[in-house]
UniProtKB/TrEMBL annotation:
<dbReference type="InterPro" id="IPR006186">
    <property type="entry name" value="Ser/Thr-sp_prot-phosphatase"/>
</dbReference>
<dbReference type="InterPro" id="IPR047129">
    <property type="entry name" value="PPA2-like"/>
</dbReference>
<dbReference type="GO" id="GO:0004722">
    <property type="term" value="F:protein serine/threonine phosphatase activity"/>
</dbReference>
<dbReference type="InterPro" id="IPR029052">
    <property type="entry name" value="Metallo-depent_PP-like"/>
</dbReference>
<dbReference type="InterPro" id="IPR004843">
    <property type="entry name" value="Calcineurin-like_PHP"/>
</dbReference>
<comment type="similarity">
    <text>Belongs to the PPP phosphatase family.</text>
</comment>
<protein>
    <recommendedName>
        <fullName>Serine/threonine-protein phosphatase</fullName>
        <ecNumber>3.1.3.16</ecNumber>
    </recommendedName>
</protein>
<feature type="domain" description="Serine/threonine specific protein phosphatases">
    <location>
        <begin position="119"/>
        <end position="124"/>
    </location>
</feature>
<keyword id="KW-0479">Metal-binding</keyword>
<dbReference type="GO" id="GO:0046872">
    <property type="term" value="F:metal ion binding"/>
</dbReference>
<keyword id="KW-0378">Hydrolase</keyword>
<dbReference type="Pfam" id="PF00149">
    <property type="entry name" value="Metallophos"/>
</dbReference>
<keyword id="KW-0464">Manganese</keyword>
């Protein structure tokens, strides 16, 4: 069956107005989301596993359904289409507005394809979204139907796995893999599928740096690896890179730098899960014209700047009003009451 596409930019602008021009974002219909997802899948078919991007560009870490904090990012980092954004994955789960968050990002990607870039995180997965909120939120917001979840998770299979910025910086969601020594190995991966349990694709979305080790070590997450300084330096040397930029880990101050800026984590969900109280950040890269031999102590490379921000007022309102994750309110007797024990690690 042939699925029609959105007929014009006017349609996309109308969808954006539904999400942006109201005191609370308006849900797009299931049919409209189906059309949007079909159109985005067609566009992403032509996108390589590793995109080639240029500065100036602003990198955004995990959002996790915190829609109003995403709007805060656009206020701080600059509005579209005047600012180029690379989003590093984990758009859904945890937060109260996963549906609205991914709807907005899909609309923006279609409306401004050369300004908005999306890569895949470990939560862009059917298995993870079934267990950590997005699936339940869709059921609650669409009258028990899971169709929107199916449309969106199909799109996740099409998202690229990383980007090279200015030919010198590699950006991905998680980290490195013992199965991958060359960027060309990532380019050769078949990404159009659910994230596997192991291998290069799994490691890219699950792995984490560890300043206490030199090589690879099994991750306590149960997927991916921890990687140390020797691994990081060798990967950069062998691929003529100077830096790895990634997300995936909660940072109390909004970011963490390892090995004098060789590896940097950017986290963009403030007051994560409406209870962690952490700051968030976006990483602005104005240029990559720097001396890699500098011995100056640094957290980021020249031309890079962390814009740190606090949770939006609406985030605080959701916390005070008792809104929970998964798109539903907590109340006794609900079939959708979330667990009081939150696994922040995943």
């Amino acid at each position: 069956m042939t699925v029609p596409v959105m007929s014009s930019l006017t349609d996309l602008d109308h969808c954006l107005s539904q999400l942006l021009d109201h005191s609370s974002p308006q849900l797009l219909s299931s049919h409209v989301i189906q059309l949007l997802c079909h159109q985005l899948k067609s566009a992403l078919l032509e996108t390589p596993n590793v995109m080639t991007l240029q500065s100036p560009i602003t990198l955004v870490g995990d959002i996790h359904g915190q829609y109003h904090d995403l709007l805060e990012i656009f206020r701080i980092g600059g509005p579209t289409p005047h600012t180029t954004y690379l989003f590093l994955g984990d758009y859904v789960d945890r937060g109260y507005y996963s549906v609205e968050t991914i709807s907005l990002l899909i609309c923006l990607k279609l409306r401004y394809p050369d300004r908005i870039f999306l890569i895949r995180g470990n939560h862009e997965s059917r298995t993870i979204t079934t267990n950590y909120g997005f699936y339940t939120e869709v059921l609650n917001k669409y009258g028990g139907s899971s169709a929107v979840w199916s449309y969106v998770t199909d799109v996740f299979d099409y998202l690229p796995l990383g980007a090279i910025i200015d030919g010198r910086i590699f950006a991905t969601h998680g980290g490195l893999s013992p199965s991958c020594q060359q960027i060309d190995q990532i380019r050769a991966v078949d990404r159009f599928k659910e994230i596997p349990h192991d291998g290069i694709m799994a490691d890219l979305v699950w792995s984490d740096p560890d300043p206490e080790i030199l090589d690879f070590k099994l991750s306590p997450r149960g997927a991916g690896y921890l990687f140390g300084s020797d691994v990081m330096h060798k990967f950069c040397h062998d691929n003529s890179l100077v830096q790895l930029l990634r997300a995936h880990q909660l940072c109390n101050e909004g970011y963490v730098s390892y090995w004098r800026g060789k590896c940097v984590t950017v986290w963009s969900a403030p007051n994560y899960c409406y209870r962690c109280g952490n700051k968030a950040s976006v990483l602005e890269i104005s240029h990559s014209n720097f001396d890699t031999g500098s011995t100056e102590k640094r957290e980021v490379l020249p031309g890079q700047f962390f814009n740190v921000f606090e949770a939006s007022p609406q985030n605080d309102e959701d916390t005070v009003n008792g809104k929970s994750m998964n798109g539903v309110n907590e109340f006794d007797g609900s079939a959708y009451i979330r667990s009081k024990e939150i696994d922040y690690f995943l």
